[in-house]
Amino acid sequence: MADLIYENEDYECQIISLLSIHRAASVFKIIELATQKRIIKDLPSIKTTELLNELPADDRVAFLEELPNSIVRDLIKTLDPDERRDTLELLGYPENSMGRIMTPDYVYVYEENTVAEVFQTIRKHARGSETIDVIYVINEADELLDDIRIRDFILAEPQTKVKDIMDGRFIALHVTDDQENGQRGF
Fold first, then answer.
1. Are residues 84 and 23 in the same domain?
2. Domain-terminating residue out of 45, 63, 92
3. How far apart, in whole angstroms, are the C-alpha atoms of residue 32 and residue 36?
4. Strand order in the sheet with 134-138
5. Is 99 among the domain residues?
């Protein structure tokens, strides 16, 4: 779909406008910045609002941080309250920090949950999550205890407790860590 936009620059706004909002956001986040800027500039304001609200917060921030502050302020005002909060939180982290590229949309569970409860949580919250291939285990203080692949939950018995699947091996970065150094760790 991105190729179709690149091959039809005169119609890129119309193409994005005709796509479902979910599909438009999926395409928008992978096209080049110059093309993104043209599309946002030429889209009707209602479509711009829909598109920006549909983008995952980290992708939205990656786009917004490339725009002049005056335009960013205007665009942020159009976001839904929850999306605005997430965007402002990520924009509040230092430029080129891990905080700027992290997603606030993930699924987490507690170590006392059963596998059956984990699947209920996934069904309830995964639609708003950018990824569900890894489920995070946190404690009551919201501290990361582990990350568990969805495969491990699928293979476990429904009554198994999360703590019995945990291995304690996970990589954690601080939000202020430099992106380049943080990405070398993987």
1. yes
2. 92
3. 6
4. 108-110, 134-138, 144-149
5. no
56/12 same-domain check: yes
Structure tokens at 4: 């179709």
- For every residue of 140-161, DSSP letters joined together read TT--EEEEEEHHHHHHS-TT-B
pLDDT value, residue 171: 75
Residue 97 lies in a domain: no
**Looking at the 3D structure of the chain, how many domains does it have?**
2
Give me the long-range contacts of 147-156 (CB less than 8 A, separation at least 24).
150/122, 153/115, 153/118, 153/119, 156/115
In whole angstroms, what is the distance from residue 149 CA to residue 111 CA?
A: 14
**CB neighbour class for 122 (10 Å; exposed up to 12, middle 13-18, buried from 19):** middle
Write the DSSP symbol of residue 115: H
Residue 98 falls inside a structural domain: no
The parent domain of residue 136 ranges over 104-186
Confirm if 104 and 86 have CB atoms less than 8 A apart: yes
pTM: 0.66
Q: What angle do CA 160, 155, 159 make, to 5 degrees?
A: 20
Dump pLDDT digits (tens) for 60-99. 999 998 999 889 999 999 999 999 998 988 888 777 777 7
Does residue 14 belong to any structural domain of this protein? yes
